[in-house]
Design brief:
- The chain is an all-alpha fold.
- It has ten helices and two strands.
- The protein has helices at residues 2-22, 26-40, 48-73, 79-100, 105-125, 138-155, 160-169, 174-199, 216-236, 242-266; strands at 210-211, 214-215.
- Strands 1-2 form a two-stranded antiparallel sheet.
- A hairpin with a 2-residue loop joins β1 (210-211) and β2.
- The protein is globular and about 50 Å long.
- The two termini are 26 Å apart.
- The relative contact order is 0.23.
Length: 267
Amino acid sequence: MDSFLAFYFGLGLVTGFVAGLLGVGGGLLMVPALIWAYAEQGFAPQYNIHLALATSLAVIVPTALSSLRAHHAHGAVDWRALRRIAPGILLGTLVGSLAAAKLPDGGLKIFFTLFLFYAATQMLFGFKPPASRQLPGLAGMTLAGGLIGLVSSWVGIGGGTLSVPFLTWCNTGLRRAIGTSSAIGLPIALAGSVGYAVSGLGVANLPAASIGFIYLPALAFIALGSWLTAPLGARATHRLPVQHVKRIFAGLLYLLAVRMAYGLWAG
């Protein structure tokens, strides 16, 4: 167990920095790593993806808080946009996380693998719609938030891979979109954590140290590591060539996607 706790802490150090730096990516790294770790620990294989998604979202709560504070200090959070999108985010994430317990693990893994390919491609080529409009009204923001929250709950992320392109499409500058995306990650993480905790209650063969689908030892040590490094990543956003870092990270996501696709095919 000690070696896995050290692994979780190291994973937190890496994912916290990446999440703070790019506004995306923490969950995309965490979920494949957690699936592997849970399999190595001998957990029931049919629930490893559920445990990984739930724990990833729970970890994002302190990570998002830490990153949010750092981005707010740089004036990079659009609080008006956050207030308008939050209701849809909360509803979509809660519905998605509650429904995930009914979905087969194979279906969730396929969805996550396809999303990894999408996220890597989007990050590598920098695809983003032209900034041709302003943020929509309450109905449009609620719909956008609901879709972002639903997808995020099924891939265990804070939503930045979707919310950053959406915000830039609506004429939000890139650094402000990244900062606001970090803030959007908080309601996603809160609603997703509650949903997965509730939907996992009473499920047999889950690890003893868990609340629903949230595995507490992984949560504690990843959260500790990410809390330390998320502010460093957020500050580095304003100093490092973010586009170059994104291309490197995209390559890593492709490798993870290929590895998961191979596991699905071989399994």
